[in-house]
Amino acid sequence: MVGTVNFQLLVSKSGHLIGVAELDNQASLNALSFEMIDLLYHQLLQWQRDDMVSCVVLCGAGEKAFCAGGDVRAMYHAMSEDEMSEDESHTQATEFLTRYFTLEYQCDYLIHTYSKPIIAWGDGIVMGGGIGLYVGASHRVLTERSKLAMPEITIGLYPDVGGTWFLNQLPQGIGLFLGLTGAVINAPDALALDIAEHIIPADHKEKLLNDLIQLPWQASDNPYLLVDQALVNLSVAAQTDPLLPDKQLIPYFEQIQTACMGDDIYQISSNIHGLIANDKWMERAKSTMAAGSPISAHICFRQVTQYAHLDLADCFRLELSLSVRCGSLGEFQEGVRARLIDKTGDPKWLFPTVEQVDNRVIDVLFTSLWSDNTHPLANLQ
């Protein structure tokens, strides 16, 4: 996968700097290659150490996407056994997945814990790994054309990149529904759920950058407040924007919460399938869950019901082992093959339905590959 991250430093009137990091892999909707994550992670570290950098803007190149996710095609090829023995393939896949997910989760965690304001300009598609970058930013912006989702159930993975943490920050039942259905929500939905903080017209991006240059960084002891004020001023224009779509999830809010109150994944799955839908949005959510991986559904259920108590660092540690184990299981590889490689759209899941999933398989997936001391993410605090 090609792709890079473009970096730029804008000089403010006070001489302070605004770092701009632009994900640039437009042919793949700015999906994240390992090299892109590496570039972003180390540049963010450098800007964090630079006292002259006052804030960071994270955005995507082009008009279609902020970031559509991770480089799952590269993961698929690492998991492929076409040209090597099973043992060699397993070793290569484990090593690649460990390297990739370790770096990705370190980058996500850095954004969550960054010591300076980060504005995530979530224009267009914000999905999967893109959500991981987006939700950790101190200031989260969407536009009238933003579309957000965690669609991992369609490829036999699960809502990672901190999903164990941020799905549990949403109102009761909503995070579980989004994980089980991969439902796409728009900017007004995301704002109502506090996933986003501001909606700003897409054509105001340059105005935002110009406004940041004009801010009195040197005279302020609260850069976060300065950014807040700049974003509020720009977001006023979006409130009456005729291009802003109507909410899609919020009209079903209470129904979704009630459906997700079941005691187990079997009951909840049945409840969601039984929701009365008046539009294509809900029908699409239900059909996505029905066609998705039953193993992914079980993983998501456990994330939300058994690990809500974990802090952010422990969530990433849990997910690293879980993601690598998913790569070894075969479900993830099969999902990527069917959806993205061969594009047959008919993955052969290990278990046909959620009722037939062997819970011992899920138990193993949630068993850590490392001790506390040897864990690749042991240093996250």
Describe the structure in your own words:
- The protein is α/β, with parallel strands linked by helices and 381 residues long.
- The chain has helices at 34-49, 72-79, 86-112, 129-135, 163-166, 174-181, 187-192, 205-214, 223-235, 253-259, 265-273, 280-291, 294-306, 312-329, 331-341, 359-365; strands at 4-11, 17-24, 53-60, 65-67, 118-122, 125-127, 139-142, 147-149, 185-186, 198-199.
- The longest helix has 27 residues, at 86-112.
- It starts with a strand and ends in a 16-residue tail after the last helix.
Kindly state the mean pLDDT as a whole number? 94
Helix content: 40-55%
Structural class: alpha/beta
| Widest sheet: strand ordering | 1-2-3-5-7-10
| Beta-strand content bin | 5-15%
Total count of strands:
10
Roughly how many Å is the radius of gyration? 21 Å
Q: Specify the number of helices.
A: 16
Task: List descriptors.
alpha/beta; 16 helices; globular; 381 residues; 10 strands
Short description:
The protein is of the alpha/beta class and 381 residues long.
Helices and strands, with pairings:
Blueprint: E1 4-11, E2 17-24, H1 34-49, E3 53-60, E4 65-67, H2 72-79, H3 86-112, E5 118-122, E6 125-127, H4 129-135, E7 139-142, E8 147-149, H5 163-166, H6 174-181, E9 185-186, H7 187-192, E10 198-199, H8 205-214, H9 223-235, H10 253-259, H11 265-273, H12 280-291, H13 294-306, H14 312-329, H15 331-341, H16 359-365
Parallel strand pairs: 2-3, 3-5, 4-6, 5-7, 6-8, 7-10
Antiparallel strand pairs: 1-2, 8-9
